[in-house]
Amino acid sequence: RDAAGRAGRLAGGTLLASRYLAEAELVEAAWEASQSRSPLTALARAERAARRVLSGAYERMEASEVLARVHALRAPWLAGHGAPAAREIERGIAAADAALEREPRFRAAHLVRGRLLLLRARGESEPRRRGALAGDALDSLLRGAEGCPGVAARLAATIAEARAELTAARDLPFPSPPG
Fold it and tell me: Which of 122, 124, 113, 107 is nearest to 164 (CA)?
């Protein structure tokens, strides 16, 4: 973080420096969470840096994807600590969608969108809706991992979870028509 801050000061606070600062803050947040410490402060700094990039025209697609990752890291942390996470999930999906609007083949945005959709599916109580969300998550995850066997291998458990949710929803009996 200190190195990223110095680089940002040397670069005169450019939008590019803000993007790299956001990336560095995401790394710090992930490390804090892996140490069972709150990543929320680092995530807030990453979000501020990503929003600075979004305020300019430069690298908006990448900044949207970084912002989606901020929300994708914050949502499970909040949920794991008893706080509502639905708003974070929705904001993250919106940010990933904004990145994909600019570049539909942006693999990193597909991957984070898939993870966020799977988080949304986990919180869905209605089985058919949960299955539909899992199907959308699976589609995004597979699009993001397409042609990248290493990424697919790292996401094997997540992809398997999405497939299992989708299969469970497909195996539900169809409701009888009213009457």
Answer: 122
One-letter amino acid for residue 177 of the chain: P
With 0-12 / 13-18 / 19 or more C-beta atoms within 10 angstroms meaning exposed / middle / buried, residue 9 is: exposed
How is residue 148 annotated by DSSP? -
Over the stretch 28-77, which tens digit does the pLDDT of each residue have? 888 888 888 898 988 888 888 877 777 665 457 778 888 899 999 999 99
Name 16's Cβ contacts closer than 8 Å, sequence gap at least 6.
Answer: 58, 59
Residue 50: Cβ-neighbour burial (10 angstroms; 0-12, 13-18, 19+):
buried
CA gap 168, 115 in Å, rounded: 19
d(CA 41, CA 164): 35
Going by C-alpha positions, the residue among 151, 57, 54, 160 that lies closest to residue 112 is: 151
- For residue 120, give the nearest of 98, 78, 87 by alpha carbon: 87
- Listed in sequence order, the residues at least 6 apart from 104 whose beta carbon sits closer than 8 Å to its beta carbon are none
Binning pLDDT at 50, 70 and 90, where does residue 118 land?
A: very high
C-alpha 127/C-alpha 175 separation (Å) is 12
- Alpha carbon distance 87, 71 (integer Å): 9
Closest CA relative to residue 66, chosen from 34, 108, 103? 108
Q: Are the beta carbons of 46 and 25 closer than 8 angstroms? A: yes
